Amino acid sequence: MLDNEFSPAMVDHLAAGIMKKYNDQLLSSVQRMLPELNIQEVKSLDDPSRNVLDEKAIVHVIARDKQRNKYGLIIQVGSQQPGENMLEVANGYQEEILLSGLGCPEEEFKATYVVFLCRIDPFGKGKPRYDYFGGKYNKLTHQTSSAPNVIFFNLENDSNGYF
Fold first, then answer.
1. Residue 133: inside a domain, yes or no?
2. pLDDT tens for residues 115-129?
């Protein structure tokens, strides 16, 4: 029914709006995305009434585990464009985290994550989840800086029941 009434972008923004406004929905979503972290508390940093269809559906999140360790997440809900380089988009979100886009310095977090909830398999390999970990190498300084963990969930065929 929704597929006939709403565009995919509208569905993405509805899902992001629910996560922004209702912490119980956001908590259960983050717990399913990152079960290994034992997340107990989450808070969206976004205005739940601000959803602009011309922008990507994004949720900025601060999460805490049972030991009160702090995690920063940027979650993009769907909206990948044909031919879009998702790793470049992830690098843009990394820069946002480094520039305190989550409201505090990156050093305050035990770890940071960029999560993509993709309607279409972003890499075409049929996997339900793609994980990228490690640092970002700067060719000019020859230094590797810390980088967020990047996770892509392929919701096109969610046979593992992530969502």
1. yes
2. 999 888 888 898 999
